[in-house]
Amino acid sequence: MPLEAGLLEILACPACHAPLSDSTAADTPELVCTGEDCGLAYPVRDDIPVLLVDEARRPA
């Protein structure tokens, strides 16, 4: 996922405001919340992060 490093530094989880980290596990690009209690995974579609809580995948 070619997100610019500067963009990744300013993005935060909409639910808990923790920083996000990029993950490309299983060919599904995602931005994963680093918050201890949250952990939501937001999809990236066409190189655009979808930062909607309703679209996020809950942690297992």
Automatic annotation (TrEMBL):
Segments passing through the bilayer: none
Family in the record: Belongs to the UPF0434 family.
Highest taxon, organism lineage: Bacteria
InterPro entries tied to this protein: Trm112-like
Pfam families named among the record's database cross-references: Trm112p (PF03966)
Protein name (database record): UPF0434 protein GCM10009654_61470
Coiled coil: none
